[in-house]
Design brief:
8 strands; eight-stranded mixed sheet; 9 helices; globular
């Protein structure tokens, strides 16, 4: 797992690293743009909405929503990535925070039409994911949606096959979503949309 310094060092080359993986249909970012597009289209169903982005990185997705009139709050681990994203979204409220500690005080009193997270929650264990997702859902407006795009699999068998196929660069410190396991622990309606062999989108409705 990358630590705080590692994320800052990775910031300038992050988007290029993702593109190489996606262009070659490789773990971990196969299907990346399709995943972001699906989340973008879901958020765009409502005009000028209030959006919270968990782990916005360099603002690839969030800046598109920002330019389409949505009001953005965001949390990220990396000071350098926040700097890159803030330049794209000068009026967004962006906070440096470690999500393993839950949510920052600046966020917990707010409510949102959409909460989005891409390629971030796999840094939490499954138990931590459930607690954090439950906390996020509590911040949604009525009929609001939590949209999670991440490295994910329908079944444990699919995850094991991907691990075997990519064992040389598999990250053992990350905890990937398995739909048929995590859905039984979520108290809310949860849909899973597989996008690639190692990625998909969860839509959780309040």
């Amino acid at each position: 797992m990358l630590n705080h310094v590692g994320f800052n060092l990775w910031a300038d080359n992050y988007d290029q690293t993702v593109q190489v993986s996606e262009d070659n249909d490789l773990y971990p970012f196969a299907g990346y743009k399709k995943i972001l597009n699906m989340i973008f289209n879901e958020v765009m169903q409502k005009d000028n909405s209030k959006v919270l982005d968990i782990g916005f990185g360099t603002g690839v997705l969030t800046s598109k929503l920002y330019s389409n009139g949505h009001r953005i709050d965001g949390i990220d681990f990396s000071e350098k990535m926040i700097s890159i994203a803030q330049a794209k979204m000068p009026n967004a409220n962006l906070f440096e925070w470690d999500i393993s500690k839950g949510l920052p005080p600046e966020i917990i009193e707010n409510t949102y039409d959409s909460i989005i997270s891409t390629y971030t929650l796999h840094h939490l264990t499954d138990e931590e994911k459930i607690a954090f997702i439950t906390e996020l859902v509590s911040l949604l407006e009525r009929d609001g949606k939590l949209l999670i795009g991440d490295i994910s699999f329908s079944t444990r068998e699919q995850l094991k096959k991907c691990r075997q196929d990519n064992i040389a660069h598999w990250d053992e410190d990350e905890f990937y979503f398995v739909h048929d396991e995590i859905m039984v622990s979520l108290p809310h309606q949860c849909e899973f949309h597989p996008i690639s062999h190692c990625g998909g989108v969860f839509i959780i409705t309040k």
